[in-house]
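Hi V.,

Quick status before I head out on leave. The structure for the redesign project is tokenized and pasted below; the design run finished overnight.
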């Protein structure tokens, strides 16, 4: 059994997916509920909800970045790969390996930049104006999302390399 197969069958892999699903549900529900509260307050009660955008910001960051990492797990990101229709299955696998290697290579500096942003947020302690929500709360989703996306890309590139070797 290859390393990537052991990773995919591990308890860590299963828990990571459960945590991602939980965070996606919680963040999506919080954004939708907050938007509902704002609509009712503004158009039914004729009052403004101050700082609602700050609360939505937190949910949106987590929704987008955890959702992106979940899409990476599913390998369901939107793509315009017309080339794959013209290639053989073996060449499609080679193309998939190249794409995933690029994803890993691009993910590493993005992880570093997200980490640096978190360090800055923890040192400078910036926060939102109305609710004083520390910026590290929504922006940590960027770091978490990039780490998970790069992890999945790395596991899948190993998987595809083994598939390519087995097809020879």
């Amino acid at each position: 059994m290859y390393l990537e197969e052991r990773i995919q069958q591990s308890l860590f892999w299963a828990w990571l997916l459960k945590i991602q699903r939980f965070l996606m549900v919680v963040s999506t529900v919080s954004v939708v509920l907050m938007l509902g509260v704002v609509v009712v307050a503004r158009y039914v009660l004729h009052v403004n909800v101050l700082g609602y955008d700050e609360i939505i910001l937190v949910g949106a960051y987590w929704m987008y970045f955890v959702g992106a990492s979940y899409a990476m797990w599913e390998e369901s990101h939107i793509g315009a790969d017309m080339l794959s229709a013209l290639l053989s299955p073996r060449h499609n696998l080679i193309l998939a390996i190249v794409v995933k290697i690029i994803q890993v290579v691009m993910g590493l500096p993005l992880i570093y930049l997200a980490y640096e942003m978190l360090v800055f947020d923890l040192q400078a302690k910036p926060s939102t104006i109305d609710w004083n929500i520390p910026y590290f709360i929504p922006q940590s989703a960027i770091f978490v999302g990039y780490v998970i996306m790069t992890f999945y890309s790395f596991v899948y590139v190993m998987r595809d390399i083994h598939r390519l070797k087995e097809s020879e």
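Above is the designed sequence. Residues 82 and 158 are 24 Å apart (CA to CA).

G. will cover questions while I'm gone.

Best,
W.
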